[in-house]
């Protein structure tokens, strides 16, 4: 910690990695059966240690300093959870009765994007790049030829082969 | 790979050399050196009287000022110590005893007055004086505590507010009649409570980690 205070980033990195299980063990004494909250506390403690690292006195032991931070952060997290639980009402029926249209649209877009990525990933790299340039980046054939340092005829040929491969994969509705 | 490794990598990249915080007593002394002149300058805005140091009850007034200084020093040093994680405070009894003694000396000073009870409305000047003198000291205290911040901001600021109130009382003692009245003393206590509350409420957002 002393070396970390002096700006030794490697020593600081080793220290933080080494104290993660220690922090988890200390926090587990206060937080039971809630692994997500426990990991939140670990992360919060790491941030706090970083923010107040100048308050560590090299003449004193490290663990009581760390333990006080863990204890305070764990109590803060438990209080925050208590506040949330006392104010929030979880009504699953109401959630399903009022679906969020925007969320389903976003999910649809995400699914289409993933399908496209999946299709393109099956193409050889040259064909994939050409499809991306012409159809995703909306370049003209001449611009795509210039961007990939090739001829217009070669671009047309590569694109033709790319679409043949895509059709073979049974995805004729790509366009 | 640990799920916190990304955060650790980022924190390590930001790990520049830091200046270690000074000992609480040093920080308390530094605060006094800055805050006392600020409080004194602010108190010049108020009309000032001159106490008669040879009047009956002057001894208790002087003792009250001495107790105010000791209480201010101990409370602010404790506030600074409490702001450091893992620092154990072993002198809570001393602090409690000194606060009680401070109140008792104030009450004994009242008995030396020709009119121990006083009248409704007495002490308005004292209240205003302590608030005017204490406000800049409170700002300096919040700035000083912000250097280390605190895991327990309410406790640190509460003790800091007590120190500020005691220091304002010390400044007030320099221009206050040596013999007070009960109503006047109540206003002193009201000003002290106001300063503690204002320091806690105003400084909490600045001092918490």
Give me the secondary-structure topology.
The complex is a heterodimer of chains A (175) and B (209).
Chain A: H1 2-5, H2 9-28, H3 35-51, H4 62-87, H5 92-97, H6 101-121, H7 125-136, H8 141-147, H9 152-168
Chain B: H1 5-13, H2 24-43, H3 58-82, H4 92-111, H5 124-148, H6 153-173, H7 182-207
Helix pairs in contact in B: 2-3, 2-5, 2-6, 3-4, 3-6, 5-6, 5-7, 6-7
Name the features.
heterodimer, A: 175 residues, mainly alpha, Rna Polymerase Sigma Factor, Chain: A, Arc Repressor Mutant, subunit A, 2 domains, elongated, B: 209 residues, 7 helices, 0% strand
Please characterize this protein's 3D structure.
The complex is a heterodimer of chains A (175) and B (209). Chain A has 175 residues and is an all-alpha fold. Chain A has two domains: 86 residues, Rna Polymerase Sigma Factor, Chain: A (Orthogonal Bundle); 69 residues, Orthogonal Bundle (Arc Repressor Mutant, subunit A). Helix content of chain A is 74%, strand content 0%. The longest helix of chain A has 26 residues. The N and C termini of chain A lie far apart (59 Å). The model of chain A has no long low-confidence stretch (mean pLDDT 83). Chain B has 209 residues and is mainly alpha-helical. Chain B has one domain. Chain B is 70% helix and 0% strand. The longest helix of chain B is centred in the C-terminal third of the chain and has 26 residues. In chain B, 42% of the residues are buried. The mean pLDDT of chain B is 90. Classes of the chains: A mainly alpha (175), B mainly alpha (209). Chains A and B meet through helix 2, helix 3 and helix 4 of A and helix 1 of B.
């Amino acid at each position: 910690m002393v070396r970390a205070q002096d700006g030794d980033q490697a020593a600081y990195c080793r220290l933080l990695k080494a104290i993660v299980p220690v922090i988890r063990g200390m926090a587990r004494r206060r937080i039971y059966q809630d692994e997500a909250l426990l990991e939140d506390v670990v992360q919060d403690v790491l941030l706090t240690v970083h923010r107040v690292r100048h308050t560590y006195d090299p003449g004193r032991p490290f663990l009581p300093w760390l333990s006080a931070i863990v204890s305070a952060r764990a109590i803060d997290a438990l209080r925050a959870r208590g506040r949330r639980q006392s104010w929030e009402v979880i009504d699953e029926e109401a959630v399903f009765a009022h679906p969020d249209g925007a969320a389903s649209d976003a999910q649809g877009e995400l699914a289409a994007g993933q399908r496209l990525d999946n299709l393109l990933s099956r193409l050889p790299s040259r064909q994939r790049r050409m499809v991306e340039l012409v159809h995703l980046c909306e370049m003209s054939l001449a611009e795509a030829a210039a961007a990939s340092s090739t001829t217009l005829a070669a671009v047309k040929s590569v694109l033709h082969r790319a679409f043949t491969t895509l059709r073979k994969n049974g995805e004729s509705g790509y366009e | 790979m640990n799920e916190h490794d990304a955060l650790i990598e980022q924190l390590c990249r930001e790990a520049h050399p830091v200046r270690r915080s000074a000992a609480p007593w040093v920080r308390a002394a530094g605060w006094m050196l800055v805050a006392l002149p600020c409080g004194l300058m602010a108190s010049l805005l108020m009309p000032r009287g001159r106490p008669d140091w040879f009047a009956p009850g002057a001894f208790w007034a002087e003792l009250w000022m001495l107790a105010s200084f000791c209480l201010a020093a101990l409370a602010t040093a404790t506030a600074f110590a409490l702001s450091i994680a893992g620092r154990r405070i072993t002198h809570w009894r001393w602090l409690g005893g000194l606060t009680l003694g401070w109140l008792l000396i104030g009450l004994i000073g009242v008995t030396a007055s020709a009119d121990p009870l006083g009248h409704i409305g007495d002490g308005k000047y004292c209240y205003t004086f302590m608030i005017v003198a204490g406000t800049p000291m409170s700002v300096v205290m919040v700035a000083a505590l912000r250097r280390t911040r605190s895991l327990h901001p309410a406790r640190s600021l509460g003790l800091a507010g007590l120190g500020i109130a005691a220091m304002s009382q010390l400044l007030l003692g320099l221009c206050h009649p040596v013999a007070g009245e009960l109503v006047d003393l109540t206003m002193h206590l009201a000003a002290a409570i106001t300063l503690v509350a204002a320091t806690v409420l105003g400084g909490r957002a600045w001092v918490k980690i």
